[in-house]
Amino acid sequence: MSWHSLPLLMRVAGRPVMLLGEGEAADAKQRLLERAGAVIVGEDAEARLAVVAIEDEDEAQVAVARLKARGVLVNAVDRPALCDWTLPAIVDRDPLLVAIGTGGVSAGLAAALRQRLEGLIPADLGVRARALFDARDLLKARFPDPAARRRALGAAMAPGGPLDPIGEGDAAAWLADPRGTPEPSLHIRLRSADPDDLTLREARALANATAVHHARDVPPAILARARADADRIACDRPPASGVYLEMVR
Fold this sequence. Notes:
- The protein is of the alpha/beta class.
- It has 4 domains: 8-87, 3-Layer(aba) Sandwich (Rossmann fold); 88-121, Double Stranded RNA Binding Domain (2-Layer Sandwich), CATH 3.30.160; 125-176, no CATH class; 186-247, Tetrapyrrole methylase, N-terminal domain (Cobalt-precorrin-4 Transmethylase, domain 1, 3-Layer(aba) Sandwich), CATH 3.40.1010.10.
- The protein is 35% helix and 18% strand.
- The chain contains 9 helices and 10 strands.
- A 4-stranded parallel beta sheet has the order 2-1-3-4, sandwiched between helices.
- The two termini are 25 Å apart.
């Protein structure tokens, strides 16, 4: 599996961003940039980023080439092949942002998905995010080991958990509960090499685990469903605790 882009969140507040072009597309990009606090400038200014929203094809290509020759990273509206970076559809739950990108292939698809997510993600999720940030010292005191802290948070945020992002969460009540939420042990016997055949419980366990032990013949496509920072540990037998994957022959 390979990505067409590396998703990044860049702080542009107070920084110059070039905007070239006029019309509806340029106006839409201007609103996005201003909402993020960017200082919109013309081509004569110094900036690292630029948005080219010029309708004429030849004029747009010339402008893109001119900017790239200066080392400026360019977003060319409706021209994905010319883009160094793209602007995603955004679900805003400040400070939480959910960005949906298609690499410029289908802005309509990204917008449709954003609208669907708007109805699923609670309006107060940003408030909960701030509450967890404010409780970071309490979290460190309760779970001094970073790995244990990640496991506890992952379990608490799982569907139906006390901090389920799509449900009703209460960080204060969870922190006051002395029982904790340790990472579950799960021995997954894979019936298929297709990750879409994972059960919901298995997919959640992979997404939350900080380490995934697995038999050596488990396909990479299955291991890719684990969180990006989780350790992948090939071994011949299940560990005493945690998640272990093996193929059923």
